[in-house]
Amino acid sequence: MDTLQERWARLAPHAELVTPAGRGPFPTVVLFHGCGGVRAHIHAYARAAAAAGWAALVVDSFAARGWSRRLAQFVVCTGLIFRGRRRAGDVLAALLGARRMPIVDPGRLVVAGWSHGAWAIMDLWAQPLARRGEVRLADADRGSLDGVIGGFLAYPYVGIASASGAGRPWPRPLRLLSIVPRRDHMASVRRHLRALSAAVAAGSEVSIWSVDATHAFDEPGLAHRLFTYDEDLGAEAIRRFQAFLRSL
Known about the structure:
Layout: H1 4-11, E1 15-18, E2 26-32, H2 40-51, E3 55-59, H3 69-75, H4 84-99, E4 104-114, H5 116-125, E5 148-154, E6 176-183, H6 189-201, E7 206-214, H7 231-247
Parallel strand pairs: 2-3, 2-4, 4-5, 5-6, 6-7
Antiparallel strand pairs: 1-3
Helix pairs in contact: 1-4, 2-7, 4-5
């Protein structure tokens, strides 16, 4: 079982930092991709963050483990391995790594996730972080969520094995913007709202964009009845992401 430092050491070579002009330190958003891996739209969000004056740290959980996109689609997207609670350790470790970067303002951090990445964020926030071994980290109780002032959740996975989807309460609040597609085949709008109610009950300020779209609608190249790219709505999602950062 990794320690926080060991997990970050695995992730760091596969994390890309995008920064705005200037010397910093900058408020920073840490981005966690979906089960398809780091795709073009993740980089588009990172560039939008930089245009808003934020640094963006893109963390590739799959490359850090030597997993190809094809392998991830077979074993991660199907839920066979690496579920949200396990990947939550990546989120906690990446926050540790970000805080150590001189260019990052450790008091103004945001976590952003797409599908599987949003699942990992929500599962992390549902953990007390009070004992060793949580989120599969030997020293999870030494992890810190200090300085995290917001979370962006794009069509989070809230189905089977999701702590929030199961109604597990959050021990701490987080200001959120969540995108809820009304044609998400992975979860109904009601299921999304039930999962987000755990955040509300903890005192979180939650904003929801309910959009007439499918899961992963902001990812170019998708053309399937379950996953359909919508250029206009994808651009609007990025605009709302950027506006959310500017509001913090």
